[in-house]
Write a structure and sequence with these properties.
It is a single chain. The protein is α/β, with parallel strands linked by helices. It is 51% helix and 15% strand. Strands 1, 2, 3, 4, 5, 6, 7 and 8 form an eight-stranded mixed sheet that branches. 38% of the residues are buried.
């Protein structure tokens, strides 16, 4: 269990402390506490399944932001071989908030792109807390075009609260950089696979997320705005973040139901930070499965598939008042006949 604790994790930690205390006592006193320890272990596992099996949307947001959660480079080390990071957008500079490079996955050459946060205060300052500047998105596009030229699939890891909204980013064309990525990614003639591994915030996420296959880790979120921002704008009260989270429908379960993502990737009980290797292997299986299916498509089919996928999102039917009244009248007539 991580040193950083969320409120709903505390009952599990209390049981872990009791178990540890009994183990220490048994070692020093030579008394057999094996049955008591086994009982507490069973109780702990049952409690973990109850807690993590019924998390609210807000609790999942908290897990997505957990400081011990694996980041892009953590997964790259486990999933990829021969990763070589490439730097710079060839226009302004490099952006450490977005890492890009060449790698292989099971000896298949790929281009890897992903947001990267830091562990320490200094690392987070250096990485700008995973919020990319325009040069980050331009660097990503440079690598995507390289992938297209050499026929390499593109794998993107999304984990950002959003694109950096500062003055410097706006001066260098943040909106244009993201918009260009959306357009160019739509036409790419190689497979694109995206995984939301933590936070999937607004244009910062979609700037590298126009993909043929999109998956989310079980406790990640994907949203047009942060819950806090939504609460401040719509409810005029930033403290109503929990209510905003429920209204936004930003969890993996909600987005899978609404057809925004293609798959939910399982995490270990307790979250991805409990076992990064297990989580990485689950991600790797999704990547390999996706690349196998996408490799059967032609270049034009890949671009058309991506375009159609995003055009279908958000489609709904709106009934007119007249149609509603007609339907209601028809139902009432049926009820009277019965």
């Amino acid at each position: 269990m991580s040193e950083f604790l969320l409120d709903f994790e505390k009952p599990v930690v209390e049981l872990e402390k009791k178990i540890l205390s009994l183990k220490v006592s048994a070692e020093h006193s030579k008394i057999d506490f094996s049955s008591e320890i086994a009982e507490l272990e069973e109780k702990k596992e049952k409690l973990k399944k109850e807690i993590y099996g019924s998390l609210t949307s807000w609790q999942k947001v908290m897990l997505a932001r957990h400081p011990s959660r694996p980041y892009t480079l953590d997964y790259v080390k486990i999933i990829c071989e021969n990763f070589v990071e490439l730097h710079g957008d060839r226009a302004f500079g490099d952006d450490p908030a977005l890492v890009c490079g060449l790698a292989t996955i099971d000896n298949k050459p790929v281009v890897v792109i992903g947001h990267q946060k830091g562990r320490t205060i200094q690392e987070n300052i250096d990485r700008n807390f995973g919020m990319a500047h325009p040069e980050g998105y331009r660097k990503a596009l440079r690598l995507m075009k390289m992938a297209e030229k050499f026929n390499r699939p593109i794998i993107t890891f999304i984990d950002t609260a959003g694109a950096y909204p500062g003055i410097a980013a706006e001066e260098r064309g943040q909106a244009e950089a993201i918009a260009r990525n959306l357009r160019e990614m739509s036409y790419l003639e190689v497979p694109v696979v995206s995984i939301i591994i933590g936070e999937g915030g607004s244009g910062g996420a979609i700037g590298i997320g126009v993909a043929n296959k999109v998956a989310m880790l079980e406790n990640a979120y994907y949203s047009v705005i942060s819950p806090e921002g939504c609460a401040a704008i719509l409810f005029r009260d930033a403290s109503k973040s929990k209510e905003a989270t429920e209204a936004l429908k930003i969890t993996a379960k909600d987005l899978f139901k609404n057809g925004v993502i293609d798959e939910i990737i399982k995490e270990p009980v307790g979250g991805a930070h409990v076992d990064a290797v297990e989580t990485a292997m689950n991600i790797k299986r999704f990547i390999n499965k996706s690349l196998t299916s996408l490799s059967k498509m032609s270049k034009q089919e890949l671009a058309d598939d991506r375009y159609d996928k995003f055009r279908k999102m958000g489609v709904f039917e709106e009934e007119t008042i007249k149609n509603k009244k007609a339907k209601s009248k028809k139902n009432n007539t049926k009820s009277r006949r019965k």
